[in-house]
Amino acid sequence: MTNTLDVALVQVAYGDDESVAQRVDRVCEWIQDLDQTDLVMLPELWAHGGFASSTWSSTAETLSGVVISRLAEVARKLSTWIHAGSIIERAEDGAARGPLGRGLWNTSVLISAAGEIHTTYRKIHRFGFGEGEPQLLEAGEELAVASLEWSANQTVRAGLATCYDLRFPELFRSLGEQGAELVLLPAAWPMPRVEHWRLLGQARALENQAWVLQCNTAGTHSGVQMGGHSRIVSPAGEVVAELGADEDVLTGTLDLDLVSRVRAEFPVLGDRRL
Protein backbone atom coordinates (compact mmCIF):
# COMPACT_ATOMS: atom_id res chain seq x y z
CA MET A 1 0.00 0.00 0.00
CA THR A 2 1.27 3.45 -0.90
CA ASN A 3 2.20 5.54 2.12
CA THR A 4 0.65 8.94 1.41
CA LEU A 5 -0.42 11.99 3.39
CA ASP A 6 -3.09 14.40 2.15
CA VAL A 7 -2.39 17.96 3.32
CA ALA A 8 -4.02 21.38 3.21
CA LEU A 9 -1.97 24.52 3.87
CA VAL A 10 -4.27 27.40 4.83
CA GLN A 11 -2.62 30.69 3.82
CA VAL A 12 -4.50 33.11 6.07
CA ALA A 13 -4.58 36.82 5.17
CA TYR A 14 -5.50 39.46 7.72
CA GLY A 15 -5.22 43.16 8.44
CA ASP A 16 -5.49 45.30 11.56
CA ASP A 17 -9.29 45.65 11.51
CA GLU A 18 -10.10 42.03 12.40
CA SER A 19 -10.07 41.00 16.05
CA VAL A 20 -8.46 37.80 17.27
CA ALA A 21 -11.90 36.37 18.07
CA GLN A 22 -13.25 37.21 14.61
CA ARG A 23 -10.24 35.65 12.94
CA VAL A 24 -10.47 32.48 14.97
CA ASP A 25 -14.16 32.12 14.07
CA ARG A 26 -13.44 32.72 10.39
CA VAL A 27 -10.53 30.30 10.15
CA CYS A 28 -12.31 27.53 12.07
CA GLU A 29 -15.29 27.82 9.70
CA TRP A 30 -12.93 27.79 6.72
CA ILE A 31 -11.21 24.59 7.88
CA GLN A 32 -14.55 22.87 8.37
CA ASP A 33 -15.51 23.72 4.78
CA LEU A 34 -12.38 22.09 3.32
CA ASP A 35 -12.48 18.68 1.69
CA GLN A 36 -11.47 15.86 4.03
CA THR A 37 -7.70 15.65 4.47
CA ASP A 38 -5.18 14.02 6.81
CA LEU A 39 -3.43 17.20 7.95
CA VAL A 40 -4.42 20.88 7.97
CA MET A 41 -1.69 23.44 8.55
CA LEU A 42 -1.91 27.12 9.56
CA PRO A 43 0.70 29.93 9.54
CA GLU A 44 2.76 31.33 12.38
CA LEU A 45 0.88 33.69 14.76
CA TRP A 46 -2.10 33.94 12.38
CA ALA A 47 -4.39 34.75 15.31
CA HIS A 48 -2.14 37.03 17.36
CA GLY A 49 -0.40 38.82 14.48
CA GLY A 50 3.11 37.98 13.30
CA PHE A 51 4.29 41.59 13.54
CA ALA A 52 1.76 42.84 16.10
CA SER A 53 4.31 42.67 18.91
CA SER A 54 2.80 45.66 20.74
CA THR A 55 -0.31 43.59 21.56
CA TRP A 56 1.27 40.19 22.23
CA SER A 57 1.34 40.53 25.99
CA SER A 58 -2.37 41.39 26.08
CA THR A 59 -3.54 38.73 23.60
CA ALA A 60 -1.26 35.88 24.75
CA GLU A 61 -2.99 32.66 25.79
CA THR A 62 -2.13 29.48 27.62
CA LEU A 63 -2.22 26.21 25.70
CA SER A 64 -5.71 25.71 27.12
CA GLY A 65 -6.86 29.08 25.74
CA VAL A 66 -9.42 29.87 23.06
CA VAL A 67 -7.28 29.43 19.92
CA ILE A 68 -6.05 25.92 20.64
CA SER A 69 -9.31 24.83 22.25
CA ARG A 70 -11.34 25.88 19.20
CA LEU A 71 -8.97 24.16 16.79
CA ALA A 72 -8.99 21.02 18.95
CA GLU A 73 -12.78 20.93 18.63
CA VAL A 74 -12.50 21.19 14.85
CA ALA A 75 -9.83 18.47 14.70
CA ARG A 76 -12.01 16.15 16.76
CA LYS A 77 -15.09 16.87 14.66
CA LEU A 78 -13.28 16.25 11.36
CA SER A 79 -10.96 13.47 12.64
CA THR A 80 -8.12 15.46 11.09
CA TRP A 81 -4.67 16.41 12.38
CA ILE A 82 -4.27 20.19 12.66
CA HIS A 83 -0.98 22.03 12.91
CA ALA A 84 -2.25 25.16 14.62
CA GLY A 85 0.57 27.33 13.29
CA SER A 86 1.78 29.14 16.39
CA ILE A 87 0.39 31.25 19.21
CA ILE A 88 1.86 33.65 21.74
CA GLU A 89 1.86 31.22 24.65
CA ARG A 90 1.52 32.55 28.17
CA ALA A 91 2.85 30.43 31.04
CA GLU A 92 0.22 28.78 33.19
CA ASP A 93 -0.11 30.20 36.70
CA GLY A 94 2.66 28.81 38.86
CA ALA A 95 4.58 27.33 35.91
CA ALA A 96 8.18 28.12 35.00
CA ARG A 97 8.51 31.42 33.14
CA GLY A 98 11.82 30.77 31.37
CA PRO A 99 15.37 31.99 32.09
CA LEU A 100 14.42 35.65 31.51
CA GLY A 101 11.23 35.42 33.56
CA ARG A 102 8.97 36.67 30.75
CA GLY A 103 6.60 33.72 30.61
CA LEU A 104 5.83 34.24 26.89
CA TRP A 105 6.86 32.06 23.94
CA ASN A 106 6.13 31.74 20.22
CA THR A 107 4.77 28.20 20.38
CA SER A 108 3.59 25.96 17.57
CA VAL A 109 1.05 23.29 18.44
CA LEU A 110 0.27 20.02 16.68
CA ILE A 111 -3.22 18.70 17.46
CA SER A 112 -4.11 15.05 16.85
CA ALA A 113 -7.16 13.82 14.97
CA ALA A 114 -8.64 13.02 18.38
CA GLY A 115 -8.52 16.71 19.27
CA GLU A 116 -5.68 16.44 21.75
CA ILE A 117 -2.45 18.45 21.95
CA HIS A 118 0.09 15.99 20.58
CA THR A 119 3.32 18.01 20.35
CA THR A 120 4.41 21.57 21.06
CA TYR A 121 7.49 23.45 19.91
CA ARG A 122 8.70 26.76 21.33
CA LYS A 123 10.50 28.72 18.62
CA ILE A 124 14.25 28.55 19.20
CA HIS A 125 15.41 31.37 16.91
CA ARG A 126 13.61 34.63 17.76
CA PHE A 127 13.44 37.18 14.95
CA GLY A 128 14.02 40.88 15.43
CA PHE A 129 17.75 41.61 15.94
CA GLY A 130 17.16 42.70 19.53
CA GLU A 131 13.62 44.02 18.95
CA GLY A 132 10.26 42.24 18.77
CA GLU A 133 10.64 38.57 19.68
CA PRO A 134 14.08 38.79 21.38
CA GLN A 135 12.87 41.68 23.55
CA LEU A 136 9.51 40.19 24.52
CA LEU A 137 9.66 36.39 24.32
CA GLU A 138 11.64 33.56 25.82
CA ALA A 139 13.63 31.38 23.39
CA GLY A 140 12.66 27.75 23.01
CA GLU A 141 15.27 25.24 24.10
CA GLU A 142 14.15 21.87 22.74
CA LEU A 143 13.66 20.34 19.30
CA ALA A 144 10.37 18.63 18.52
CA VAL A 145 9.83 15.60 16.29
CA ALA A 146 6.40 13.99 16.33
CA SER A 147 5.02 10.70 15.02
CA LEU A 148 1.81 11.30 13.07
CA GLU A 149 -0.54 8.34 12.63
CA TRP A 150 -3.63 8.38 10.42
CA SER A 151 -5.65 6.01 8.22
CA ALA A 152 -4.62 2.34 7.98
CA ASN A 153 -1.89 2.85 10.58
CA GLN A 154 0.16 5.05 8.26
CA THR A 155 2.84 7.03 10.08
CA VAL A 156 5.43 9.70 9.42
CA ARG A 157 8.05 11.39 11.61
CA ALA A 158 7.51 15.15 11.41
CA GLY A 159 9.89 17.80 12.71
CA LEU A 160 8.59 21.18 13.83
CA ALA A 161 10.26 24.50 12.98
CA THR A 162 8.96 28.07 12.77
CA CYS A 163 9.65 30.91 10.31
CA TYR A 164 13.10 32.42 11.15
CA ASP A 165 14.35 28.91 12.01
CA LEU A 166 14.51 28.40 8.24
CA ARG A 167 17.75 30.40 8.15
CA PHE A 168 19.54 27.97 10.49
CA PRO A 169 20.39 24.72 8.64
CA GLU A 170 21.80 23.06 11.75
CA LEU A 171 18.31 22.93 13.28
CA PHE A 172 16.97 21.06 10.26
CA ARG A 173 19.96 18.70 10.29
CA SER A 174 19.26 17.95 13.93
CA LEU A 175 15.61 17.22 13.14
CA GLY A 176 16.79 14.79 10.47
CA GLU A 177 19.10 13.08 12.94
CA GLN A 178 16.03 12.52 15.11
CA GLY A 179 14.29 10.77 12.22
CA ALA A 180 12.28 13.57 10.61
CA GLU A 181 11.04 12.70 7.12
CA LEU A 182 8.84 15.79 6.95
CA VAL A 183 9.25 19.31 8.37
CA LEU A 184 6.23 21.47 9.19
CA LEU A 185 7.18 25.13 8.93
CA PRO A 186 4.55 27.80 9.70
CA ALA A 187 5.66 31.38 9.09
CA ALA A 188 4.89 35.09 9.05
CA TRP A 189 7.48 35.85 6.36
CA PRO A 190 7.30 39.32 4.77
CA MET A 191 7.09 40.06 1.06
CA PRO A 192 10.44 41.96 0.77
CA ARG A 193 12.31 38.72 1.60
CA VAL A 194 10.02 36.23 -0.09
CA GLU A 195 12.78 35.04 -2.45
CA HIS A 196 14.81 34.03 0.61
CA TRP A 197 11.75 32.07 1.79
CA ARG A 198 11.57 30.22 -1.49
CA LEU A 199 15.29 29.53 -1.84
CA LEU A 200 15.85 28.40 1.75
CA GLY A 201 12.80 26.13 1.75
CA GLN A 202 14.15 24.22 -1.22
CA ALA A 203 17.64 24.11 0.29
CA ARG A 204 16.40 22.68 3.60
CA ALA A 205 14.40 19.98 1.78
CA LEU A 206 17.21 19.09 -0.62
CA GLU A 207 20.07 18.97 1.88
CA ASN A 208 18.09 16.82 4.33
CA GLN A 209 16.18 14.81 1.71
CA ALA A 210 12.89 15.40 3.51
CA TRP A 211 9.51 16.86 2.65
CA VAL A 212 9.09 20.50 3.73
CA LEU A 213 5.68 22.16 4.10
CA GLN A 214 5.96 25.96 4.23
CA CYS A 215 2.73 27.65 5.35
CA ASN A 216 3.01 31.43 5.24
CA THR A 217 0.78 34.41 5.96
CA ALA A 218 -0.83 36.76 3.41
CA GLY A 219 -2.28 40.26 3.72
CA THR A 220 -0.81 43.36 5.38
CA HIS A 221 -0.84 44.01 9.11
CA SER A 222 1.11 46.32 11.42
CA GLY A 223 2.39 48.04 8.29
CA VAL A 224 4.08 44.88 6.96
CA GLN A 225 3.10 43.19 3.70
CA MET A 226 3.29 39.43 4.10
CA GLY A 227 4.84 37.19 1.47
CA GLY A 228 2.39 34.34 0.99
CA HIS A 229 3.79 31.72 -1.40
CA SER A 230 3.05 28.75 0.83
CA ARG A 231 4.53 25.69 -0.80
CA ILE A 232 5.15 21.96 -0.77
CA VAL A 233 8.77 20.96 -1.43
CA SER A 234 9.82 17.37 -2.11
CA PRO A 235 12.84 15.49 -0.67
CA ALA A 236 14.54 16.12 -4.02
CA GLY A 237 14.22 19.88 -3.51
CA GLU A 238 11.50 20.22 -6.13
CA VAL A 239 8.54 22.56 -5.62
CA VAL A 240 5.49 20.34 -6.02
CA ALA A 241 2.94 23.12 -5.52
CA GLU A 242 2.95 26.79 -4.53
CA LEU A 243 0.44 29.57 -3.88
CA GLY A 244 0.67 33.21 -4.84
CA ALA A 245 0.49 36.22 -2.54
CA ASP A 246 -3.24 36.20 -1.70
CA GLU A 247 -5.30 34.28 0.85
CA ASP A 248 -5.82 30.75 -0.41
CA VAL A 249 -5.48 27.08 0.48
CA LEU A 250 -2.88 24.73 -1.00
CA THR A 251 -3.72 21.03 -1.14
CA GLY A 252 -1.55 18.12 -2.12
CA THR A 253 -0.70 14.48 -1.54
CA LEU A 254 2.75 13.59 -0.23
CA ASP A 255 4.32 10.29 -1.31
CA LEU A 256 6.11 9.53 1.94
CA ASP A 257 7.98 6.58 0.43
CA LEU A 258 9.77 9.12 -1.76
CA VAL A 259 11.99 9.98 1.21
CA SER A 260 13.54 6.53 1.36
CA ARG A 261 13.80 6.30 -2.42
CA VAL A 262 15.63 9.64 -2.72
CA ARG A 263 17.96 8.76 0.14
CA ALA A 264 18.75 5.37 -1.41
CA GLU A 265 19.29 6.67 -4.94
CA PHE A 266 21.55 9.54 -3.81
CA PRO A 267 22.92 8.58 -0.36
CA VAL A 268 24.66 11.87 0.33
CA LEU A 269 23.79 11.89 4.04
CA GLY A 270 26.03 8.87 4.58
CA ASP A 271 29.07 10.83 3.37
CA ARG A 272 28.91 13.53 6.07
CA ARG A 273 32.21 13.96 7.93
CA LEU A 274 31.62 17.01 10.14
Automatic annotation (TrEMBL):
Key words, A-Z: Hydrolase
Gene Ontology MF terms in the entry: hydrolase activity
Pfam families hit by this protein: CN_hydrolase (PF00795)
Keyword Plastid on entry: no
InterPro entries: C-N_Hydrolase, C-N_Hydrolase_sf, UPF0012_CS
Domain of life: Bacteria
Domain annotation CN hydrolase: ranges: 5-256
Record family assignment: Belongs to the carbon-nitrogen hydrolase superfamily. NIT1/NIT2 family.
Name of the protein in question: Carbon-nitrogen family hydrolase
